[in-house]
Amino acid sequence: MTTVLKLGGSVVTEKESPETVDDAALSRAADAVADFDGGLVLVHGGGSFGHHAAAERGVSAESGTRSAADARAIHDAMGRLNAAVLDALHDAGVEALPVRPLSLASRDADGDLTLPTGSVATMLAEGFVPVLHGDGVVQSGSGVTVTSGDDLVVALAEDGALDVDRVGLCSTVPGVLDGDGNVIARIERFADAADALGGSDATDVTGGMAAKVEKLLALGAPAHVFGPGGLDEFVAGGSPGTVVRGE
Ligand code: IP8
Hints:
4-stranded mixed β-sheet; 12 strands; 38% helix; binds Isopentenyl phosphate
């Protein structure tokens, strides 16, 4: 059994200042992760590292680059954040190793992601905690586009060989919020979320959350969406924030 946990980029970096780690938040998260008992795969987002580097070069999930220099600049920025995350995990006593998607993953022309997981599975079997991150990934017909850590979480959770039974998404919001800002405790059908997330003038952010919920509902494992305050509870096996579990 394996747990996949994503630490959102805005949880571990100061999103407004380019390439700035939130050291205190990162070390709190690393300490919480150190208490986890069992197989764990970590994924982190881009925060003020990858998003800044990608935006500066006009690269996104939809718009790729054929400049190796630009692709490397995004990958290198994520490498600096990944190194900071690994250092914090090391300081907390976690035997964590990097798994870098640019060298491993690919997307087809429709955007479907292929993520070979042999190294992740073997790291887990050997007692390590693999740490992946959102990254530039080569895409058929588009050069290199941005792959979000959320997509990596879904690919890992769908990989039968990893036997994932729990997924956690830790971001800066305490869960999936309804129109009044309250955390929705449980989502079992997309219709529940779509109603709660609002109608046609939903902002990008809620649209993003609705899309995320739709992907999570398709997973075989329950997914927990929570804020930094819920990390200890999740690590201890609890259900902070919103549980997304398809029927
Ligand atoms: O923060 C984005 O990952 P996310 C990664 O999980 C890059 O969406 C390179 C911007």
